[in-house]
Design brief:
This protein is an alpha/beta fold. The chain contains nine helices and 14 strands. It folds into two domains: about 325 residues, Alkaline Phosphatase, subunit A, CATH 3.40.720.10; about 80 residues, Arylsulfatase, C-terminal domain, CATH 3.30.1120. The strands form two sheets. A ten-stranded mixed β-sheet has the order 6-5-4-3-7-1-8-9-2-10, sandwiched between helices. Strands 11-12-13-14 form a four-stranded antiparallel β-sheet, with helices on one face.
Length: about 450
């Protein structure tokens, strides 16, 4: 009888223990690290010969690295809108970087952090927002529990001022004055957030401003400058590649500190870590072997590094040719978290995680881009290995980007049927997103 009672007690304790286990395995933490204006070839794991990025590269050794991953846009605001909404940013009429006007706004409907909060996640954005200044358009209004960072497209790394010379550093929606190099402030706050939320599932977006200009190197506050200067090669005293390298290596050190915080808290095995970039690199970046750079829809403007690490779920040391895009990360994060996604969220990305497993075969994709900024009027569609690029109204170019990474061989003349098919797809997509953007603008009075 005593044995029976003992057995029942053991079973009861086991059941209690089972129910007492944290829900972590079904709700992994998520740390999304996104750098700014970094070139496709600016990391050691992507062939950089002059930049040491051991911590970012460690993600590639312990996770899976993409070779055909794209940003939603060729500049800041568009890609970040695609990430937060999980949809083409054209549906929100966000196709160019928001200016520094304090009335600039963006409201994206249902958002990634909002949907994660319904699953019990603590959510934070630390770093760059660039999707609206006013409180009703701020990170807090889009589902982030907390925000520390700046709302403009870029700031002085030391003075924390925007293009207009105004202070642009916020704690939630309250302006703050804090001394320090912006990259380091972002790292320190990210580590602090991890330490404070180690006991429950969290989503942390770490949005570094490195390596966006101004090219102010760390540990030299005397280089604080007027943000309107030293942007391009023909400026007086322009930045140098050596400056850029220092910016990138400091960001990599920050990534190392964030990963170390996960290790110290015993969270590494149950944390999906994602590293990517918002668009192609600028003039000091290394976009090789791709052609052109930020703002354009050539590969150098939209193909970016992307690495995913989640031990036991994402293969270690793997390289995948799977085509992906920023808004796929939104879908993948929500799927990993087991979040309920209502149909009206209208997510347009795919869950990449099942496509990274052993034996998984790449899925063919059809993706679209459009840019009307910086004097450019370009549209592009990638369908399988084909990419159609319309530059203005006269230039129609067709590339096989699987064979021709540098987009040097225009195949439009020899493949008119492909050109017609892809152009029809592109026009249909434009009609669809523009109709929604118009209806949304009419309903809200915005844009």
């Amino acid at each position: 009888m005593r044995r029976l009672v003992l057995c029942i007690a053991i079973i009861a304790l086991a059941l209690v223990s089972l129910h007492a286990q944290p829900a972590a395995p079904s709700r992994p933490n998520v740390v999304l690290i996104i750098t700014d204006d970094v070139g496709y070839g600016d990391l050691g794991s992507y062939g950089a010969p002059d930049i040491k990025t051991p911590h970012i590269d460690s993600l590639a050794k312990t996770g899976t690295r993409f070779t055909q991953f794209y940003a939603n846009g060729s500049s800041c605001t568009p890609t970040r809108a695609g990430l937060i909404s999980g949809r083409y940013q054209q549906r929100f009429a966000l196709e160019r970087p928001l200016g520094h006007a304090r009335t600039a706004d963006a409201m994206l409907g249902r958002s990634l952090p909002q949907l994660l909060r319904t699953r019990g996640y603590a959510t934070a954005l630390i770093g760059k927002w660039h999707l609206g200044y006013l409180p009703q358009f701020s990170p807090k209004s889009h589902g982030f529990d907390s925000f520390f960072g700046f709302k403009a497209g870029f700031i002085d790394y030391y003075q924390h001022t925007d293009a207009a010379g105004e202070s642009d550093l916020f704690e939630d929606d309250t302006p703050v004055q804090i001394k320090g190099y912006m990259t380091d402030l972002i790292t320190d706050r990210s580590v602090k957030f991890i330490n404070e939320h180690a006991a429950s599932p969290f989503f942390l977006e770490v949005a570094y401003n490195a390596a966006h200009w101004p090219y102010q190197v760390p540990d030299q506050p005397s280089t604080a400058i007027d943000n309107a200067r030293h942007i391009v090669a023909h400026d007086e005293n322009p930045g140098t590649r050596a400056d850029y390298v220092k910016l990138m290596e400091r960001a990599d050190q920050g990534v190392g500190q964030i990963l170390a915080a996960l290790d110290r808290r015993g969270l590494a095995n149950n944390t999906l870590v994602i590293f990517t970039n918002d668009n192609g690199g600028e003039w000091l970046s290394r976009n090789a072997p791709l052609f052109n750079r930020k703002f354009t829809l050539y590969e150098g403007g939209i193909r970016v590094p992307a690495i995913l690490r989640w031990p036991g779920h994402v293969p270690a040391g793997a390289v995948t040719p799977q085509v992906g895009i920023t808004m796929d990360l939104s879908r993948s994060i929500l799927a990993a978290a087991g979040a309920q996604v209502p149909p009206d969220a209208g997510l347009e990305g795919i869950d990449l995680l099942p496509l990274l497993g052993s034996g998984a075969k790449p899925v063919s994709r059809t993706l679209f881009w459009r840019v009307t900024t910086a004097g450019l009027n370009q549209r592009a569609v990638r369908d399988g290995d084909w990419k159609l690029l319309l530059d203005g109204f006269a230039r129609v170019m067709l590339f096989n980007v699987a064979k021709d990474l540098g987009e040097r061989e225009d195949l439009a003349a020899s493949n008119p049927a492909v050109v017609r098919r892809l152009r029809q797809q592109l026009l249909a997509w434009e009609k669809d997103v523009d109709a929604e953007a118009k209806a949304r603008g009419s309903a809200s009075g915005a844009h």
